[in-house]
Design goal:
The structure is a homodimer.
Chain A: H1 17-31, H2 37-44, H3 48-61, E1 64-67, E2 70-73, H4 76-86, H5 91-105, E3 108-115, E4 118-125, E5 140-142, H6 147-155, H7 158-167, H8 181-194, E6 197-200, E7 207-215, E8 221-230, H9 236-259
Helix pairs in contact in A: 2-3, 5-9, 6-8
Chain A binds a DNA duplex through residues 13-14, 16-18, 21, 36-38, 46-50, 52-53, 56, 66.
DNA sequence: ATAAGTGTTCGACCATTTCGAACGATGATC
DNA sequence: GATCATCGTTCGAAATGGTCGAACACTTAT
């Protein structure tokens, strides 16, 4: 099929170096919120003056805040991130549906989209527990380790799917994670027939999940919806039939609503 | 050439120019999601190649995504923004409380924090309407135009308050917005006695609000909590006594819970 | 008073960003 | 099926601007 691809595989295309150091600072700041200038310079191995200049720039632009206890990432990231989130079609509708599903099943429901070959959490709701904030909002897991991720993969057009599988590194998340491309391929095929996908302790030990894809009016995949719970509770009929049916119904309704929005 | 360095706070401190152009791109991308390279270069008045390089860098770092219909801001902003949000003490507790208040009052409840001299939405919940997403999450309004903003100002130590008032530009949001520093000062004093603050169509026509401050265990202000609603519904006893009491109770409880967390 | 911890400034070196024009790829129009 | 319009991409030359390290200023603890 394709052959002229190898050259772009690893070559760092020409890139703005300064931006890398800038986001290094941001990155370190998220991992070590409230860090001081000296700490950051030390950890990043840049000159203090360099880090200082970047922090000052970031602060002036609103992306960093300096308080008495050190530097913090600013809420402008949240502002931008929220617009990024709402740029997904039907996000509001999906969010409501996620909460409905959580309530109906008593389990945790979540919605992912694909970005840069990973599954990114966009919404999550818990059935039983008090309404807790979404801790991992925006966090990423490999597509092949999530039921919703597999559902997304299965809806991709063949060439894109091929590319994506090519680029995957298949690092295990748990000892049940699929690490064989052929095995993943087979599961995608199987799930395509059924319309729903499973995750048996592949992303978290002791946790099962069922997932389905959400597609837009033109057939393009928007994201994936899944229900997660303890493996002892997600089993048998409920796991293999009831929850899938519920999800398929939800997906269907969602897709209709999205198409008419 | 010699620089006349006005040692006041006015001068542009030395700043990473490249970062400015980079965030110019990001900014434009949030305002015009899905823009093409040519559009961005045109609107920003940079060379196409320059914008291209920045976009490529941003994409490689995960902060921008290129889809068939153009470039989009990436969800990494959301990821970073969420950590910024949860770096505020007691955010989870506050969020729950906001939802409780919305449910109890049937009106809209919201939580702000101060950043860069503005009030930033961190949480919002609506009582009546279906659970809708927070549209303006991360968005900013002037402190002096929000009841919760005034509450925050009133809790600041005098020197900081002074500085902040100095820097304020007092641009009106509606025709009821306070634009006179002395008037604001007076309202802050008055509210300090009472413990709560009002907003009478100062941020949105036809809308009233009551707000209180939330403080941490050391007396430092964390943010402000407020209830908003149509001015015809927020009036009389309910507006000037019931809601304030409710909010003061909520703040009190919150502060206790936060102190013990 | 001293010391250790902040953040801040400065000038010289040289890395790197910027620009514009030309290229290649894709899709629309006639 | 050829031509035009648009899109993203590449390239080298010129100068803009980022990096470094040492020294400064400031606050708090010893």
């Amino acid at each position: 099929m394709n052959e002229t691809r190898s050259d772009a595989a690893e070559g760092d295309v020409d890139t703005v170096r300064t931006a890398e150091t800038l986001f290094d600072v941001v990155q370190r700041l998220t991992e070590n919120d409230g860090a001081t200038l000296a700490e950051l310079a030390e950890e990043l191995d840049y000159a203090k003056s360099t880090v200082h200049r970047h922090l000052q720039t970031l602060e002036q632009l609103g992306y960093v805040v300096q308080r008495d206890d050190g530097y913090h990432v600013g809420l402008r990231f949240l502002e931008v991130g929220v617009t990024a989130r709402s740029s997904f079609r039907g996000y509001d509708l999906v969010r409501q549906k996620v909460e409905e599903i959580a309530e109906a099943t008593g389990e945790r429901a979540q919605f992912f989209v694909e970005e840069h070959g990973k599954a990114v959490y966009l919404a999550r709701a818990a059935g039983d527990q008090a309404v807790r904030t979404d801790p991992g909002l925006g966090s990423r897991i490999p597509l092949y380790a999530a039921s919703a991720g597999k559902a997304i993969l299965a809806e991709l057009p063949e060439p894109e799917l091929f590319d994506m599988l090519e680029r995957m590194s298949f690092e295990p998340v748990t000892d049940h994670t699929i690490t064989d491309p052929d095995e993943l391929r087979a599961e995608i095929e199987a799930g395509r027939e059924r319309g729903y996908f499973f995750n048996r302790e592949e992303s978290l030990r002791g946790t099962h999940a069922v997932g389905v894809a959400i597609c837009g009016p033109d057939g393009e995949v928007i994201g994936g919806l899944s229900v997660t719970g303890p493996s002892h509770r997600l089993t048998g009929e409920r796991f293999e039939s009831e929850l899938p049916d519920l999800l398929l119904g939800a997906a269907n309704e969602l897709e209709l609503n999205i198409a008419h929005s």
